[in-house]
User: What shape does this take?
Amino acid sequence: MSKLLVTGRKKLSGEVSVQGAKNSVLPILSATLLARGETVLYNCPDLSDVEDSVNILRYLGCKAERSGQTLVINTDGFNRCDVPDSLMRKTRGSIIFLGAVLAKTGRAKLSLPGGCEIGLRPIDMHLSALKKLGAEIRERRGCIDCRAPYGLSGAKISLDFPSVGATEQVIIAACLAHGATTLTNAAREPEIADLADFLNSCGARIYGAGEGEILIEGTGSLSGCAHSIIPDRIAAATFMSAAAATGSEIVLTDVIPAHLGAVISAFEDMGCKIKTDGTKLKITAPASLKPLKAVSTMPYPGFPTDAQAPLMAAACVADGTSVFTENIFENRFRHTRELARMGAEIKTCGRVCVVYGRDKLYGAKVDSTDLRGAAALVVAALCAEGKTRIGSLRYLERGYENLELSLSSLGADIKKI
Ligand code: EPZ
Assistant: This one.
């Protein structure tokens, strides 16, 4: 089991390119099933979550080859409608295959998805939306059996909560439905618009993605296209946390600053200077960070829940007390226990977490508990005095492509052992 060994308190400097968005490429890989022939996806990060989705495509009979950051998918061999538990359990993103397989074949037999243990993560909104589109769904012993023998039919769907996954599920399932579907209270995350851009390039007719109301006009068939995945705004926020925690100045390239509004303002509240120019973002951290009076995670364009843990790691060495409220997932403070091993002083109560800034953290042996919690431990290790060993790297590898190489190129003393 590989580990990371970090020797902290090294200043970072230089430039780093930000990877393609994990949470964009995952739904787009499922959506390729709707399109005939070949799809070429550029800027695909090489992550275990992505590999797990590619393996589901291969299991379903598709061809999928990676060369560097490019994935070439061919769905002509798509000939199954079931996905085994062993493949479904690996990621949360696997549930988005449900709508795609059902829409294309009229049948889908999948088990419940996996993913980071940051809460119960039910799929009730996914299933109720598919039922509104005409799916007959039976759930038995963790297995979901869906049928739509006459295809799906457009419907008016309103989500109780702007769920990213449920929004993606509806967009994908409605593309080949008979008639039009309107989705209200849709998630507005940039990854939703990227999915719609991809599907529209395949011939779909999706309007309003990125807004709260989306219209999908069903079309008979779609054909593959070439598409470049948007940059990963959470990876960008993670590098910004590393710069803030170490009092450094770095430049991120290949980002879309417009996707980072709430993140930029949080770092500015901590006293960081942020300059953006096209797809470049320069962050200059102060010698001592100001605390964050109130960070509340919200659906986009609010502060993203995925950036809460890395930002909290930086707040551990701020000059004062910061308060975080986690409104999206009910169990997303698991990294606080490991941060405490490094000397962080943190109190959690339900969805609220109070971080009493310390002048320094100390290296320790820590273990990651989920993807973004692992990222928080890396950020903390970069500013801690001494050596930190971070275990369970499988979580980090789900969402960050060669994070240790990128950070060492910025001057960090970090290596995989
Ligand atoms: C996506 O998860 C992302 N994952 C998550 O990123 C991200 O944190 C989340 O959106 C919110 O932005 C992928 O895109 C693969 P939701 P998803 O449906 O779709 C509840 C990361 O670290 N809910 O918006 O699962 C749910 O339990 C990961 O990269 C229901 O109750 O998130 C949660 O409390 C972590 N019923 C809230 O809604 C449902 O049917 C938001 O979940 C669906 C969701």
